[in-house]
Every structure is written in C-alpha cells, then in structure tokens.
Amino acid sequence: MTIEAKVIAHSSHPGCPDLITVQARYPRFIHSEVMTHRAFSRSASSSRAVPIQQMIREVQDDPAMPVEWGSNKAGMQAGAEIEDTISARTEWRDAAYSATIAARHLNELGLHKQIVNRVLEPFSHISVVITATDWDNFFALRCHPAADPTMRALAEAMRDAIKGSTPQPLELGQWHLPYGDS
C-alpha cells in the first residue's frame, strides 16, 4: 500500500500565513475524507483519464489497501486489529484481482474507460495536489488516534513533509507556483 506526500511549494511573506502545496498519493477509498476539508484547494487525478490497461496494471502491482485490519464493532472506529491479518490481506488482494478480471471483461465488451475503471477504483490510488494556508485543524482531526488509520497515515505523511519543508520568501508581486518558476 502506497501513501506518499511531498511538499512541492512552500511560500512565505511577512504578515501572511505560509502557503503550502503538497503532492500526495493515497488509496482512493479515503479521498472523500480529504474532500471534507474546505480549507484546502485541491486538484485530483481522474480515473476517467487513465487507460484501462494502465489502471489494471496499477491495481495488480500495488493495490490500495487499509493500513490496519481492525475488528468489527459498533461505532465509527474499528476494534483491535484482528489476529489473522494475512487472511484479510489475501481476501483483499483476491477482491482486487477479481476487479481486474471484471474490468478486462467489460473492456472486451467495448465499454469506455470512464465505466470500466470505476470497477477498479476501490483498489486504486489517487494523486492529489493540495494547497492551503491553514493545516492545523486538518492535522488535529486526522493525526488523532480516533481517525481512520489509513487517513491518519496520510495526514502524518503530509505533516512530516511540511515539518521538513523550508519556506521560500516571496516579495510583493511574486507568485506561489508549485510547478513553475517564480
């Protein structure tokens, strides 16, 4: 399971909060959790743009998986991790494999990737660029022990990337350009 986060731009100006842009890759199944934070400006990759065979290959090579295998109980937080995590991982990988088989069959029927790739989404990753000036609330909520473990792993990776980042001072008239020169 791949969770990655790196700062691609970190700008500062006297009297203004730092503007930070993070590039992240994480399991698509937690994307709705990221989307709940309105303080973020973000742009996400679309599974509609990825060729079917590439999406199948990505799911086969690196299926998105939960970070922890918590036991079932009432409420929003899982219980303690189950003992047989090997079987849980195996079942999850089997489900991912079944999704790739279904995607191949749907592709053979002539369906467009915007339909076929939806079958693969629960096992795929998403790449997202997130820009914000205020990260404190996000980290307070998502780095917390009660947060979804996979979401917490992403938040911690983002927090660590930001902690290790050095802001670039901007003068009046200069721009925060994550993928360009100022």
Plain-language structure description:
- This protein is α+β, with helices and mostly antiparallel strands and 182 residues long.
- 38% of the residues lie in helices and 18% in strands.
- The protein has six helices and five strands, in the order ββαβαααβααβ.
- It has a five-stranded mixed beta sheet.
- The radius of gyration is 19 Å and the shape is flat.
- The mean pLDDT is 95.
**SSE pattern, N- to C-terminal:** EEHEHHHEHHE
Number of strands: 5
Overall mean confidence score, pLDDT:
95
Class by helix and strand content?
A: alpha+beta
Helix content: 25-40%
Radius of gyration: 19 Å
- Strands across the major sheet, in which order? 3-4-2-1-5
Question: How many helices does DSSP assign?
Answer: 6
| Poorly predicted regions | none
Strand fraction equals 15-25%
Quick one: biggest sheet? 5 strands, mixed
Report the principal-axis shape. Answer: flat
* N/C terminus separation: 35 Å
Structure characteristics:
flat, 38% helix, alpha+beta, 6 helices, single chain, 182 residues, 5 strands, five-stranded mixed sheet
Please specify the SSE layout and strand pairing.
Blueprint: E1 4-12, E2 19-27, H1 31-35, E3 41-44, H2 52-61, H3 85-108, H4 113-120, E4 125-132, H5 136-142, H6 149-163, E5 168-169
Parallel strand pairs: 1-5
Antiparallel strand pairs: 1-2, 2-4, 3-4
Q: Can you describe this structure in just a few lines?
A:
The protein is 38% helix and 18% strand.
